[in-house]
């Protein structure tokens, strides 16, 4: 899919990126992500859930990504591609961090609170599906726009996984479902970051040819 997006002519993406509607959507997404970061960080600490903490950190990273995207919308493709490289690095870093946190909890033990996991996971899912729906029309733009779409899509998938983990924790009385979901979320971040990195590099090379 990323290769297909890279074959698009950059002009339509530039026009989309500079549209007032796209800017409004990004501002909405920024506000939603900041609010959910505060909610999930508190719930994650209270419940002892690694997947909720991972999702909270992801919300914060997405808020930072939206801020960067808003800053470079009016700039040329090169600057937008460079911003995408920065966001790809943050996605990769998030994935590595979550894997490390999951390993630490697995070693030290502890069982999260399933009810809090499930209810906050549902709230986060509603928030992310709303943002992803707003961004759907821009999913095949340049690397910068694509990274925004991938973050929202991955978040919605992650929220479903958190809810499934809550059921698993409730049914088994074990932390392993929570840790498994955290590992899946880390994998999504790593693969998504790599896809954005690859497309951004292609756009930078194409601009210099």
Automatic annotation (TrEMBL):
Chain segments annotated as coiled-coil in the UniProt record: none
Alphabetic keyword roster: Membrane, Transmembrane, Transmembrane helix
Cell compartments where the protein resides: Membrane
Signal peptide: none
Domain of life: Bacteria
Membrane topology reported for the UniProt record: Multi-pass membrane protein
SUPFAM superfamilies according to UniProt: Cation efflux protein transmembrane domain-like (SSF161111)
Occurrences of domain Cation efflux protein transmembrane (ranges): 26-204
TM spans (from-to): 25-43, 63-81, 88-108, 114-136, 156-173, 179-197
Molecular function terms from GO: monoatomic cation transmembrane transporter activity
Gene Ontology cellular component terms for the protein in this record: membrane
Protein name: Cobalt transporter
């Amino acid at each position: 899919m990323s290769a297909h997006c890279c074959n698009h002519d950059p002009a339509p993406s530039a026009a989309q990126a500079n549209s007032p509607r796209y800017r409004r959507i990004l501002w909405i997404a920024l506000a939603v992500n900041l609010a959910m970061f505060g909610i999930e960080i508190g719930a994650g600490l209270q419940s002892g859930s690694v997947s909720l903490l991972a999702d909270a950190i992801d919300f914060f990273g997405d808020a930072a990504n939206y801020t960067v995207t808003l800053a470079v919308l009016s700039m040329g493709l090169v600057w937008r591609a460079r911003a995408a490289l920065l966001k790809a690095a943050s996605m990769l870093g998030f994935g590595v961090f979550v894997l490390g946190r999951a390993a630490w909890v697995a070693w030290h033990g502890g069982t999260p609170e399933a009810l809090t996991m499930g209810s906050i996971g549902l709230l986060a899912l509603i928030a992310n599906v709303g943002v992803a729906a707003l961004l759907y029309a821009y999913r095949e733009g340049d690397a910068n726009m694509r990274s925004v779409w991938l973050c929202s899509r991955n978040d919605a998938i992650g929220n479903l996984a958190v809810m499934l983990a809550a059921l698993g924790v409730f049914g088994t009385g074990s932390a392993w479902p929570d840790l498994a979901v955290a590992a899946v979320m880390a994998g999504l971040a790593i693969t998504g970051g790599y896809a954005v990195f690859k497309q951004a590099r292609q756009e930078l090379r194409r601009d210099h040819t």
